[in-house]
């Protein structure tokens, strides 16, 4: 490229690059993409000698058209269609299927217990009460609470073994 072409290309850059860059940012919303498009536009101007010596208004119009077409081509490209933009990656969610089945099995096993055993177990384990609180709530002696807990848990364990949950 002759020295005059270098000077003409430098002048083309100095006169129009900032305006083309703002135009591309307006079209794409991305300063990084605008840098690439302006660079490609200037490269095409350099490869097209007829633009270098043109009237400044004609050269600017040509550069805006080239930049617009580059933006459109990029938007239509296969790379862009298959690219996820500004979407966070999907978060892994624990599969709660096993937990759901375990819950159903425990509910069934509890339903098979006597009402006295079920009441003591449910209040102790799910209500977080101690034997003294259970005795007071149920109006029975503490020893009876302990006995119902012991035999109720044995019956629950047997019911869960029958369902294949506990060995």
TrEMBL record:
Highest taxon listed in the record's lineage: Bacteria
PANTHER family per the UniProt record, alphabetical: ECF RNA POLYMERASE SIGMA FACTOR SIGL (PTHR43133:SF52), RNA POLYMERASE ECF-TYPE SIGMA FACTO (PTHR43133)
Keyword Transcription regulation in record: yes
InterPro entries assigned: RNA_pol_sigma-70-like (IPR039425), RNA_pol_sigma-70_dom (IPR014284), RNA_pol_sigma70_r2 (IPR007627), RNA_pol_sigma70_r4 (IPR007630), RNA_pol_sigma_r2 (IPR013325), RNA_pol_sigma_r3/r4-like (IPR013324), WH-like_DNA-bd_sf (IPR036388)
Keywords: DNA-binding, Sigma factor, Transcription, Transcription regulation
Family recorded in the similarity comment: Belongs to the sigma-70 factor family. ECF subfamily.
Name recorded for this polypeptide: Sigma-70 family RNA polymerase sigma factor
RNA polymerase sigma-70 region domain span: 13-81, 109-157
GO MF entries: DNA binding; sigma factor activity
One GO BP annotation of this record: DNA-templated transcription initiation
Any Pfam family: Sigma70_r2
């Amino acid at each position: 490229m002759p020295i005059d072409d270098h000077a003409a290309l430098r002048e083309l850059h100095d006169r129009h690059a900032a305006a083309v860059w703002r135009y591309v940012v307006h079209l794409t919303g991305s300063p990084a993409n605008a840098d690439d498009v302006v660079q490609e536009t200037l490269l095409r101007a350099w490869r097209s000698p007829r633009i270098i010596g043109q009237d400044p208004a004609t050269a600017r119009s040509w550069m805006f058209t080239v930049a617009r077409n580059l933006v459109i081509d990029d938007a239509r490209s296969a790379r862009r269609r298959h690219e996820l933009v500004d979407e966070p990656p999907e978060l892994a969610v624990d599969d709660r299927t096993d937990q759901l089945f375990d819950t159903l099995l425990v509910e069934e096993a509890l339903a098979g217990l006597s009402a006295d055993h079920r009441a003591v177990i449910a209040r102790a384990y799910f209500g977080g009460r101690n034997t003294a609180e259970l005795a007071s709530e149920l109006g029975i002696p503490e020893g009876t609470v302990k006995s119902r807990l012991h035999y109720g848990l044995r019956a629950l364990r047997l019911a869960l073994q029958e369902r294949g949950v506990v060995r």
